[in-house]
Amino acid sequence: MSSTDPPTAVGAAPTLTARRLDGLADRVFSSPDGSGDDGDGAIDVSGPATDERIGRVPACDADDVSAAVERARDAQTSWAEVSATERARIVDRFGDLVADRREELLDVLQLETGKSRRTAVEELFDVPTGCSYVASEAPGALAEERRRGVAPGVATATVTREPVGVVGVISPWNYPLTLSMADAIPALAAGNAVVLKPDEKTPYGALLLAELLEVAGLPDGLFQVVTGEGPQVGPPLIDAVDYVAFTGSTATGRTIAERAGRNLIGCSLELGGNNPLVVLGDADVDEAARGAVQACFSNAGQLCLSAERIYVVESACDEFLDAFVRETEALTLGTGYDYDADLGSLVDADQLARVESHVEDARERGATVETGGRARTDVAPYCYEPTVLTGVEPDAAVACEETFGPVAAVTAVPDADAAVAAANDSPYGLNASVWTGDRERGAELAREIDCGTVNVNDAFLATWGAVDAPMGGFGDSGLGRRHGPEGILRYTETRTVGVSRVGPLTFPDRIPTDWFVRGAFAATRLGRRMRRGVDEVRRRLSRR
Ligand code: NAD
């Protein structure tokens, strides 16, 4: 897709022009016979801050998708032969480029998501941080490993890790840069090719990252972007790749898992949540209130890790609520390309309608709106005030479904046990936050909460920012983990090679079989005793 338009600015984004966005759209993979190369079936992309069209990207069809995967597969064969250290170097260079090119990336992010620049910068910061981790850890995690052989001196066992091939990454609109790269970068570092399908609302950030990967030295064809609606592009992608890394809603995640299961390919699913935040009686309530504001209203609540249900032990509830409402009312709304606003816009009309209907439903069931509770179309078409509710019925939509907006329900509970029981009363299990003056107790309580990540005296960064530790959900919040070695190794097949030093491991010819059986059992008993002895010595040494 190309344009003859003059270089006019798009929206109010300082660094972007229509021509630049068209240039990025040209990076979408299109097959010779597909829709992408002739501009047919293009889809409009709108900027939420103004609700105006900012550009068009191809609506790829099944032919485009399978041709993109084929091209990626060709490129992957030689990429797998490149050393893990060299691959890591390219990842590192890419991280540096993202940091260097941040102004344009931030403009793209704000333009297509409507988020505030503060939120955009938090998101962008994740990309070089993740690259730096992957670059330093991937070569070690992927290295060949010696394991215990069948018996000492008899045979060796060595494990190698092979890339799965082509990884399909399907990412959402809420953190389009971070959530594309958190899955794509480790896949590339592990020797795979990647075909990325960004959300149809937010294709430009992904395309700009594709450009930077090329500048960083990633070989041609290894990273492809296909754009279009999920139900059209997703299924042919899953049918063609060797692994799918999906981030999005639980409903879509189930269809992805079904299809991956039918194709017998691996998948990781990072899905929705309805996350709890617990405040104990001994918490510093001002700190907890500041933390709750971050937990509930970052990215206007459109964050999978956002807290939506707050349980406060009765003795601290009034004081906490006062502080939380005060902090919430101090937040500013806006869509400017500066750092003035705390919260930006919701992503579109559907998202605004969902938030409004959840608040309305809670109100109709008797909830009190302590602050907020209104759309702010005077700021931008899809802005909504940060909202605090109390008296929410347990079966209200806000209490049991994911709102994915700036709405938090505060409920008093008698004690810590009741708070944990309420926190666990959900089919989801993504993220939780616990606030207490006693960190050790907080960590103990965290182990009772059924979530993949639990933060003590922090909203979500203590776990999300710990990129060496796995991140993912229990229950309806997903399958598999990103971050840490787990996030790299999911994209590999292991191959175990056993080498016998004594010929075939079967009954020997020259010893009567009953002698051999007796000898073999005696040897394994001796082996077990020696192992127990060694284990005991290790235990004693570790206690010192
Ligand atoms: P969604 O499931 O509708 O869309 C996510 C992606 O899937 C998009 O790229 C979309 O085009 C694609 N898609 C849609 N239908 C598809 C299909 N049939 N086959 C293949 N792909 C398809 O999600 P959404 O509602 O737009 O995103 C918000 C959701 O994502 C929330 O539930 C949020 O909690 C979740 N999320 C989870 C995490 C996490 O790490 N756990 C992170 C961010 C967002």
UniProtKB/TrEMBL annotation:
PROSITE patterns: ALDEHYDE_DEHYDR_GLU. Residues 23-54 are annotated as: Disordered. The keyword Oxidoreductase applies. The active site is at 270. GO terms for molecular function: oxidoreductase activity, acting on the aldehyde or oxo group of donors, NAD or NADP as acceptor. SUPFAM superfamilies: ALDH-like. Gene3D superfamilies: Aldehyde Dehydrogenase, Chain A, domain 1, Aldehyde Dehydrogenase, Chain A, domain 2. It holds the Pfam family Aldedh. Keywords: Oxidoreductase. Residues 41-497 form the Aldehyde dehydrogenase domain. Homotetramer. Belongs to the aldehyde dehydrogenase family. This is Succinic semialdehyde dehydrogenase.
